[in-house]
Structures are given as structure tokens and as C-alpha cells.
Amino acid sequence: MTTTTITTLRLESRFKELKREIIKPENREAVQASWERLLKALDRKADEISRAGSSYIPEVNWRDIENGGFTEEMSSLIHARGCLIIRDVIDDEQCNQWREDTKKYIKSHPGITGTPRAGVTSNWFIHWSKAQVEARSHPRMVQLMKTVGKLYKNNDPDALLDMDSQVVYADRLRIRYPGRDSTLPLHLDSSSIERWEDEQYRDVYREIFEGRWEDWDPSLIDRRPSAKQDLYQGMSSNGSTCSVFRSFQGWLALSDAKPGEGTIWFLPDLKCVLAYILLRPFFDDGGNLDLSSAQFPGATPGSGQFMAYDRAMFPHLQHNKSVVGIPYVKPGDFVLWHADLLHEVDEEHKGDKESSVVYIAHTPLCPYNIETLKDSRECFDSGAKPRDFRYEYDDGPDESSYEDRGREEHLLSLEGKQALGLVPFDVNEEGLTPGQIAVRKMANEAMQR
User: Fold this and answer.
1) Amino acid 173: pLDDT
2) Which fold has domain 2-448?
3) Residue 310: pLDDT above 70?
4) Domain residues of the chain, as ranges?
């Protein structure tokens, strides 16, 4: 079995000063009291999740939200639990075709590599296959991304953010076969130490650091896009960092799968769990506020935020009770999770057939993502590896020489072409906010340079 090898480094002394900067003197009493409330809330939450199991993860059918969007009740549930399964987004026949096309693509190019590096590959270093290009640009996928983008609240009409427009983040795909091969332990994506170190990023969690974690709203979007999520340019080269702002992560199922068959598990709570992770570095094991250490458990510069390598540092997460596998999924179902949600992957695939998904994130248009828009277009045109994945060149070639990779004619929608910078965004569309118009203009100008 191969695992992602990451350990918590001893951080520089400057991080001790950072702690004192974050927890201001006037807030320290409130933060101490909030920690005590939080630990009790985590206990209740662990019991609640444990009793429900996989059924705790919300589900909805695509046809129920296709036109009218999410009900207020479902929106509240997603904001609280941070994840969702959307059934029947793409029809089975299309998904089965994409899966078979991908297997043929891999077989046709023996140079394609992936992880684990020893044994049977499950995560393939592929970014521009025809199946991926079609799936990202499929009209249903475009509509889905617009629909889920409305789960967030933007209180600033001038914010340079367009949740209706996407930028392609050319992630990989998984075809995992039965057996023990690899795993990804409990973690948060979208950075690690940056959640504390970057001033704009930690402002997203302002209420938590002021001792008011109950008031933190994970669905509020306007403070997020300007946060710097990769201050260390992914120096760990383990694929756990991301230079783009993803409001949601997700994947489209290309096969059947259920817990224990090489699929994903969640700790389905946002507010309590994220508050615990962010406040844990400020408390000793006895529950007392302690700003004398430079350590941030689980945080390694240039990596994701990993909880599982030292569970003793995070006992109140109650991993064995709180982390649950997703319900059974079939081809065409879409699994979605918030950028701040803890998740992990099955250590072992105990099923009898492959488990296949294509990763597609909700990556809205904002200034921070315009560099990714430019990079994605260049890499799409050439077949090169996107910037977050250039470490893959150590293992094998890119797709530039593959004549059967995805091309412009395989983009299935206008929005799919816009998301790759091939067609300008419409700045005259009815109903746009001033911020949407401004950021679309910024993107269009950037793509002309």
C-alpha cells in the first residue's frame, strides 16, 4: 500500500508571533470560552453523525434542482454539512462511454503514469483526454455549476467575483481497481498554514478567531476569492496543494461505488469542525489558551492540511465516529463538497470491479483564478501539464504528442469554451452585478495579452 507521506514540520519562530497577532488580547477571554463551548458541540455532533451513518450526507436528484435550484431547507443542510450527492446529472450511457474511452486512451499510451508508483495505478496523471474535456464542458455540467454556485451568498455586488462563470482547473481522474493500493488520509485541501498566515485568508474566518465561531457563515463568499491559498508554491510536490480558488470540489461518478470500494469519506460538518481545526493550535492539551508555541498541528507549508498523521493532536474529531463513507453512487451521480470540509479516501477497495471518477471542481471566475485561465488555455492547446501538476514530469511525459487527446471540437458548450479562455465572457448579459461585469472584462483583457 502507498500513502501520501506528509509530516508536520517544526515551524519557524515567526509563527509564534503569528499566533499572538491572530488572537488579539481583547479577544482572548472570548476565545477561551468559545473553545469550551466548541468541545461540547463536537461531542454532540459526533454522536449525531455516528447514529445516522452515510444517510447523514444530503442527497438530491438533478431533476429536482435543474430549473428551480435548491430549496431553502436543502441549502441550509448543505451549508451545515458541507457535502452533497446530486443524482442523475449525466445519463449512464454517456458516463459508461467516457469510462471506456478513458481506458482505451490509457491503453493506447503506455507512457501515462500515476499513483501509486509501485503496484496498480489508480490516480492517473491525465488532464486532457477527450472524456475529461467533454465532461467539463457538458451542458448539464455547466448548468450544475451555475446552480451550485448559488449556494454561496455574496453581500457585495461590487466584489470581483462571478459564480456563474467557470475557469477550467484541469484535474485528473481515478480508475481504481479492487485491492489495497493507495489512500489519502483525513485532510483539508486548499492550503494548510495559509488559513492562518495569509491575512486575507484568515479574514474569511474572522468570527472564529474572535471567539464567535457560532457566527461564522461558511456560505459567505465575498471574502474568499482574494485569499492566497499557495504561499509556498506547492513545495512539497505531493499534489495536495492548489493554486486556484475552488469554492466546491467534486467528482462525477463513471462507475458504481459504495463505502469500502475505493471511494470518498467525509466528516460532514463545517462550522464546528473547521472552528476546531483553526483554534486547535492555540490550546494546550488541557484546554487552556497557549500562545507560546510556534506549532500548527497538521500544517506543513506547501502541502494540504492533514489530520490523520497524528490523531492524538485532534482527539475531539472522534475520527472513528464522525467520518462516514458516501452512500452508493452510480454513473452520472455527482459528489460535491465545500472547500473547508474534511475528507479522506478508502484505504482498501474491497469491491469486485473498478471505481472510476473524473474530478471537476467549481472554480469561479475571479482575479485570483485568471492566471489559471491563462495557464489552462495554453496547456489545453499544447497538451502540457497544468502548473499545479508539473511535478508529474518527474514520472513521465505530458499529452502533447497524443493525437487523440481532447481538442476544441470536443468542447460541448459555449461556456466550456469560455472556461478555457477560447471565447470571451459576455459582459452585456442581462442581470450581471457590477463586480461580475468588471471581472469578466478583466478576464477578457488578460486573454488578449
Assistant:
1) 96
2) Jelly Rolls (2.60.120)
3) no
4) 2-448
